[in-house]
């Protein structure tokens, strides 16, 4: 499949692959190098029936933080046991270079013919400023779709736009649709639903669906391991060792040792207490397609390890998306070689492991808006704010200087606090100059310098929301 044009560094790329297998229960998709697997789901509607315009189908979802050289390139997803498939790549852009992306996904099944109606398995923490994608794969090319709708309790879903209706008459036929929408207000309080009106031949409009939530957020640094010395914040175990051969920042990183053919070397970390998210930098310099870096997470939901990322070749330093983690969870980095051959430095590196911790305390102040001297932030009610000036505690890394320096609503007001502002709750708006106003345009936001008079907004509901604990994000 061909990637979209105009991809910039730090864009989020989402790949959706739909497949009808060549045999019942078959069908495999290998993770494309440089991509992370989010989920896969197979329909369980047709049993042993598999043929033209009928039979179970499968969806895979992958994501990648763009390097910037992917525009209009061909991406190969290695499939086996396939009768027919479709695949598409979607680009999501943001206006704060260096920010992280976090992605969560949930799945559903529609087992009834006719119009589409799917209720997804879990609440993935949808909030204002997010972009959501819905997709379905069906075993026939003879159906069309219209009036697609996404609904999430507790939030306002903006205009739902159909992206495509991928279909093919090859093999035993396949079809489906993909839609997207911005989230304009609120925070989710229940599971999403996806509906659509089916046209044409609707007998076999049945199959699996996915709901994807994408959000960008500021980078975090509550706990950082940069390998610059051996006083580890998060100590590695395994055979990888500190090296000054290459580093993302500073002079040191953690490097895989000389690894023999048909062998694997690894480094393992335990997620520290209280951590909710993790990100890292990595570099692989190897025989492309054969000697690879793998990143595994010991899943709290599934037995064993779940592979989250795979890459090979001479990548240069790359930055991961934000992965949702749980304290005590094991994260493993493997460098695995095939039976012969070498390439480039024949190794892999990791650097700047970063973990986000939750807010530990908030102190209330008397300010009703952002004051002339950064006195406080309009938040909890018309008469109470979050103190920002005199020693108040805003979690392990307050960084008060960042006051309103990040974009609403997809970033924390204070990095690392986990709290998101609701501009409608500020009765007095934003105060004096050198703070930032908030303006929204569709699903994007921007921060500008405020005038002395401030920006007036009407009171509404609670001024702070703590965003989600996703079921499965990257």
Can you lay out the helices and strands and say which pair or pack?
Elements: E1 12-21, E2 28-29, E3 36-42, E4 50-51, E5 54-55, E6 58-65, E7 79-80, E8 82-92, E9 100-110, E10 116-119, E11 131-138, E12 143-151, E13 155-157, E14 161-164, E15 175-186, E16 193-200, E17 207-217, E18 223-225, E19 237-238, E20 241-243, E21 253-255, E22 264-270, E23 277-285, E24 292-298, E25 305-312, E26 318-319, E27 323-324, E28 330-336, E29 347-356, E30 364-365, E31 376-378, E32 385-387, E33 420-421, E34 436-441, E35 444-449, E36 464-465
Antiparallel strand pairs: 1-6, 1-8, 2-7, 3-6, 4-5, 9-17, 10-16, 11-15, 11-17, 12-16, 13-15, 14-15, 18-29, 19-22, 20-21, 21-29, 22-28, 23-26, 23-27, 23-29, 24-25, 24-28, 30-32, 31-32, 33-36, 34-35
Describe this structure in words.
The protein folds into three domains: 12-217, no CATH class; 223-356, Sandwich (Jelly Rolls), CATH 2.60.120; 359-465, no CATH class. The protein is an all-beta fold and 474 residues long. The chain contains no helices and 36 strands. Strands 18, 20, 21, 23, 26, 27 and 29 form a seven-stranded antiparallel beta sheet that branches. Strands 9, 11, 13, 14, 15 and 17 form a six-stranded antiparallel beta sheet that branches. A five-stranded antiparallel beta sheet has the order 19-22-28-24-25, with no helix packed on it. Helices cover 0% and strands 42% of the residues.
Overall pLDDT: 77
Given helix and strand content, the structural type is: mainly beta
Major sheet: 7 strands, antiparallel
List low-pLDDT spans.
361-474
Distance N to C terminus? 23 Å
Q: How many domain modules?
A: 3
Rounded radius of gyration (Å)? 24 Å
């Amino acid at each position: 499949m061909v990637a979209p044009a105009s991809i910039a560094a730090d864009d989020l790329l989402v790949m959706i692959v739909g497949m009808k297998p060549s045999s019942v229960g078959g069908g495999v998709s290998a993770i494309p190098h440089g991509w992370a697997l989010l989920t896969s789901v197979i329909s369980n509607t047709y049993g042993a029936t598999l043929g033209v315009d009928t039979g179970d189908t499968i969806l895979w979802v992958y994501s990648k933080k763009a390097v910037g050289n992917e525009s209009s390139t061909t991406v190969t997803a290695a499939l086996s046991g396939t009768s027919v498939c479709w695949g598409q790549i979607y680009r999501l852009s943001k206006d704060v270079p260096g920010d992280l992306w976090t992605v969560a996904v949930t799945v559903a099944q529609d087992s009834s013919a006719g119009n589409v109606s799917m209720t997804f398995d879990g609440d993935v923490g949808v909030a204002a400023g997010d972009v959501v994608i819905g997709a379905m794969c069906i075993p026939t090319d003879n159906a069309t779709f219209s009036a697609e709708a996404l609904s999430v309790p507790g939030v306002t879903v903006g205009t739902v736009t159909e992206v495509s209706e991928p279909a093919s008459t090859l093999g035993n036929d396949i079809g489906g649709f993909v839609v997207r929408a911005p989230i304009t207000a609120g925070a989710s309080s229940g599971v999403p639903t996806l509906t659509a009106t089916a046209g044409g031949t609707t007998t076999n409009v049945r199959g699996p669906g996915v709901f994807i939530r994408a959000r960008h957020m500021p980078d975090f640094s509550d706990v950082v391991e940069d390998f610059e010395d051996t006083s580890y914040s998060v100590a590695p175990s395994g055979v990888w060792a500190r090296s000054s051969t290459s580093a993302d920042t500073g002079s040191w990183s953690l490097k895989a040792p000389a690894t023999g053919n048909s062998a694997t070397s690894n480094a393992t970390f335990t997620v520290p207490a209280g951590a909710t998210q993790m990100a890292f930098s990595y570099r692989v310099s190897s025989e492309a397609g054969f000697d690879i870096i793998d990143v595994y997470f010991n899943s709290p939901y599934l037995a064993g390890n779940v592979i989250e990322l795979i890459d090979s070749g001479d990548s240069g330093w790359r930055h991961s998306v934000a992965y949702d983690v749980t304290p005590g969870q094991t994260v493993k980095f493997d460098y695995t070689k095939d039976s012969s051959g070498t390439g480039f430095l024949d190794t892999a590196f990791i650097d700047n492991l970063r973990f986000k911790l939750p807010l530990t305390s908030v102190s209330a102040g008397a300010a009703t808006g952002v004051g002339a001297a950064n006195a406080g932030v309009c938040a909890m009610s018309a008469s109470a704010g979050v103190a920002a000036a005199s020693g108040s505690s805003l979690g392990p890394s307050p960084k008060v200087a960042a006051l309103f320096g990040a974009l609403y609503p997809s970033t924390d007001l204070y990095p690392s606090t986990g709290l998101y502002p609701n501009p409608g709750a500020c009765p007095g708006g934003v105060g004096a100059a050198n703070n930032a106003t908030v303006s929204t345009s569709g699903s994007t936001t921007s921060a500008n310098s405020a005038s002395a008079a401030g920006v007036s907004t009407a009171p509404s509901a609670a001024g702070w929301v703590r965003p989600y604990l996703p079921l499965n994000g990257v």
